[in-house]
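Reply to dn_fold:

You asked what the input looked like. This is it:
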Amino acid sequence: MTTAPPVPYGAAIQAARSAGDPLFTAYQTGTLAQFEAHAGNGVEALNLARRARRALGEIGPAVTDAWLSSIEALSHAAL
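and this is what came back:
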C-alpha cells in the first residue's frame, strides 16, 4: 500500500537542513520514516530512518537513538 505523505514533511526536512540543525533534521526525517512504516512502506521507512541517523551523527541524546530504534522496528514489521 502506498500512501503519499503530507507535503509539509518535505518542507520541514528542508527547513531543518537549511537551518543547520542536525537534531531537528533527524526528528523530521524520523517522523516521516514513522509515517511510512505505519503506511506499510517498510523499505522506504528503513531508508528514512537511516538518513535520520546519518543527519544526527554522534551528537544525539540517547532518547533519540531509542526513538529511531523503535522506528526501525516498526519499519521491519512493515516489510
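The first helix runs from residue 8 to 19.
Hope that clears it up.
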